[in-house]
Amino acid sequence: MTNPNDPYNQGGYNQGGQPQQPGYPQQPGHPQQGGYPQQGGYPQQGGYPQQGGYPPAAPPLSQSELNAPARPKSVDTAFMLWLVAAGIGILSNVITFVISSDIESQTGVASGSGGTIVSLIFAVLWIVVVMQMRKGANWARILLTVLGGLSIIGNLLSLALVGILLSLGAFGVISLLFVVVSLAVVIGAIVFMFKSDSNYYFKAS
């Protein structure tokens, strides 16, 4: 039986016989810390915006393309002149088709739509060859030289009919101008194709 006045009985004993620790009294000057406030964590990154992917890489250049010389201005000039000649040929054929009846009455030579269609197809093929010439194809340069020579002969023959062309009125005058301009353009294109820098370009391509 315990004495309530026994000083050793303060706080009592626990069942294991060990004195029960009353604990340290809470300091009045220091508020009880509830531990560090719980971090909410860093805000979750939405991640980098998803890239749509890099564009596909360009195919590597071949050795011939790497060693290919720069295209000289003379070739570009010849290219433009050939395109002008092709455009003149197309317009000339359209005008010829329009005034075909007058030409037939003046010369007695029929100029039907069939010849105009063939000439338009020829002009398209001409442009294809001109594109190859610009890329440095020497066969295209030779072919254009042959075709240009035939065109020069045809334009010279047309000039021999200048009287008939002028008698056809406005369309005849326009046709005559086309003949003169086409003659000059074709000659200029051939000259620019065979300049010294052009020759080097075609040999190296």
Structural summary, described in words:
This protein is mainly alpha-helical. The chain has a domain at 71-204. 60% of the residues lie in helices and 0% in strands. Helix 2 (73-98) packs antiparallel against helix 7 (170-193) and helix 5 (138-160) packs antiparallel against helix 7. Residues 8-18 have low confidence and may be disordered. The chain crosses the membrane at residues 79-99, 111-130, 142-166, 172-194. Residues 7-55 have a biased composition (Low complexity). Keywords: Membrane, Transmembrane, Transmembrane helix. Residues 1-68 are annotated as: Disordered.
Structure summarized in a few sentences:
The chain has eight helices and no strands.
Subunit organisation of the chains: single chain
Q: Low-confidence stretches at least 5 residues in length (pLDDT < 50)?
A: 8-18
Count of DSSP-assigned helices? 8
> Hey, roughly how much beta strand do the residues contain?
under 5%
Structural class, from helix and strand content?
mainly alpha
- Could you tell me how far the N terminus lies from the C terminus, measured between alpha carbons in angstroms? 121 Å
What's the helical proportion of residues? 55-70%
- Principal-axes geometry comes out as elongated
For the sheet with most strands, the description reads: none
Using only C-alpha atoms, the radius of gyration works out to: 48 Å
Keywords: Membrane, Transmembrane, Transmembrane helix
Region (Disordered): 1-68
Transmembrane segments: 79-99, 111-130, 142-166, 172-194
Biased composition (Low complexity): 7-55
